[in-house]
C-alpha cells in the first residue's frame, strides 16, 4: 500500500522538483499553503510523513513542527537548499523533526533513488519521543589527555542528532574521557551539528580537524565527507579515502581505530541508524576487551545499525537511550 507524504511548500516550487521521487510506494500530496495553515492539511490527509520546505518564516515553521508533534505526531523531514537554512533546520530538530535532507541542485538517477529510499524509510518509522536529559554542570576541570586515557566512540545515522542531544545532555561535565562521534550527515552540516549540540547540552563539541588532540570531557564530530581515525597518541587524523560501505565518514573505520589503538581502554556505542555501519567496529572494540553498548529497538528511530550490532554479538549491553549516559558514567568512574 502506498504511503502518503505531505509536502509543506508555500511557493509550490519544491513540489515540482520532488515529483520524480514519488512512485508506487509513495504518494505525494502538495497543496501550496503557508506553514500557519499546514496543520489543517496534516489533519486532512493524515500523511505517514511530513516534508517541510524551509523557505517560509522560521517562527511559523517552528510553531508548525511543535503543533504537529503535540497534536498529530508523525515523522517530519526538513528540506534544506541553502546554507542559511541550516540554523533553522537544527532548531526544528529540537522541536521534534526527525531528519534534514539536503536537496541538490539537480536530481540525477542515483540521487533520486537514494532520496526515494530515504523518504520511504522515514515514512515507515514510528515516532519515538526522546525527552532531553538534564543539563548537569560541574566545576571539574578538564585536563589534556594522556597515553593512558579511555576513548568513547559513538556511531549514529538516521535519528542520530536528536539521540546525540539526549545522550550528551545526560552526561556530566568533566568526564575522564574524550568522545569521538561519527554521524552520517549531509556535507556542510557537521559544523552546524557541533554548534547545535553545544547549545543544547552545554558541552564543548567540535567538528574535528586533522591533527587535533583529544581533550577529556570534550566531544569531536567527524566532518561530513571525511573519515576520522584516532591515533594511539590521542591525535585525530582525517582521511579523504573512498567511502566504506557507501559511507564517508565510516563508523566502522572510526570504531576500528579506537579498538586497535586503545583495546580495553575503548568504549563503543552504536545509536539509531539504518544499515550496518558501526556494527563490525563495535565488535572489534568488544573483542579487544573494551565495553560496548547498542541502543535498544524500542528507543531507536531505526534499529538497523544497533540491530546488526546485537545480531553479530558486538553489544555487551543493549539499553534504552535514556540509560546509555548513566552506564557510560559508571564505566568511566
TrEMBL record:
Q: Which domain of life is it from?
A: Bacteria
GO CC annotation terms, alphabetical: cytoplasm
Which UniProt keywords are present, listed alphabetically?
Chemotaxis, Cytoplasm, Hydrolase, Phosphoprotein
Where along the chain is the active site annotated?
157, 184, 277
Query: Which E.C. number(s) belong to this protein?
Result: 3.1.1.61
Where would I find the Response regulatory domain in this sequence?
Answer: 4-118
Record's keyword annotation contains Transmembrane helix:
no
User: One GO BP annotation here?
Assistant: chemotaxis
Enzyme kind, highest EC tier: hydrolase
Q: Which GO terms describe its molecular function?
A: phosphorelay response regulator activity; protein-glutamate methylesterase activity
Q: Look up keyword ATP-binding and say if it applies.
A: no
**Record-linked CDD domains:** CheB_Rec
- Domain (CheB-type methylesterase) spans 145-333
Q: Which InterPro entries match?
A: CheB-like, CheB_C, CheY-like_superfamily, Sig_transdc_resp-reg_Me-estase, Sig_transdc_resp-reg_receiver
The protein's name in its UniProt record:
protein-glutamate methylesterase
- Provenance organism: Archangium gephyra
Amino acid at each position: 500500500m502506498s504511503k502518503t507524504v505531505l509536502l509543506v511548500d508555500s511557493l509550490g516550487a519544491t513540489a515540482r522538483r520532488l515529483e520524480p521521487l514519488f512512485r508506487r510506494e509513495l504518494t505525494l500530496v502538495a497543496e501550496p499553503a503557508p506553514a500557519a495553515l499546514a496543520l489543517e492539511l496534516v489533519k486532512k490527509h493524515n500523511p505517514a510523513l511530513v516534508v517541510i520546505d524551509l523557505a517560509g518564516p522560521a517562527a511559523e515553521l517552528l510553531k508548525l513542527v511543535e503543533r504537529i508533534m503535540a497534536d498529530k505526531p508523525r515523522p517530519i523531514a526538513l528540506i534544506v537548499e541553502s546554507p542559511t537554512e541550516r540554523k533553522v533546520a537544527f532548531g526544528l530538530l529540537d522541536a521534534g523533526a526527525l531528519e534534514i535532507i539536503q536537496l541538490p541542485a539537480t536530481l540525477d538517477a542515483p540521487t533520486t533513488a537514494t532520496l526515494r529510499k530515504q523518504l520511504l524509510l522515514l515514512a515507515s518509522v514510528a515516532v519515538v519521543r526522546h525527552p532531553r536529559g538534564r543539563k548537569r554542570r560541574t566545576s571539574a576541570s578538564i585536563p589534556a589527555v594522556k597515553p593512558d586515557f579511555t576513548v568513547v566512540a559513538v556511531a549514529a545515522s538516521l535519528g542520530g542528532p536528536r539521540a546525540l542531544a539526549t545522550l550528551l545532555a545526560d552526561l556530566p561535565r568533566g568526564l575522564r574521557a574524550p568522545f569521538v562521534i561519527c554521524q552520517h550527515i549531509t556535507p556542510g552540516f557537521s559544523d552546524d551539528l557541533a554548534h547545535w549540540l553545544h547549545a543544547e547540552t552545554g558541552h564543548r563539541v567540535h567538528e574535528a580537524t586533522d591533527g587535533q588532540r583529544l581533550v577529556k570531557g570534550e566531544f569531536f564530530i567527524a566532518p561530513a565527507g571525511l573519515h576520522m581515525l584516532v591515533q594511539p597518541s590521542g591525535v585525530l587524523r582525517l582521511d579523504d579515502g573512498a567511502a566504506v560501505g557507501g559511507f564517508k565518514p565510516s563508523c566502522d573505520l572510526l570504531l576500528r581505530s579506537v579498538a586497535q589503538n586503545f583495546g580495553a581502554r575503548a568504549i563503543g556505542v552504536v545509536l539509531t541508524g539504518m544499515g550496518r555501519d558501526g556494527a563490525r567496529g563495535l565488535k572489534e572494540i568488544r573483542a579487544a576487551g573494551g565495553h560496548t553498548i547498542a541502543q535498544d529497538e524500542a528507543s531507536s528511530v531505526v534499529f538497523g545499525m544497533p540491530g546488526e550490532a546485537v545480531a553479530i554479538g558486538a553489544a555487551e549491553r543493549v539499553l534504552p537511550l535514556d540509560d546509555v549516559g548513566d552506564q557510560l558514567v559508571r564505566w568511566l568512574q
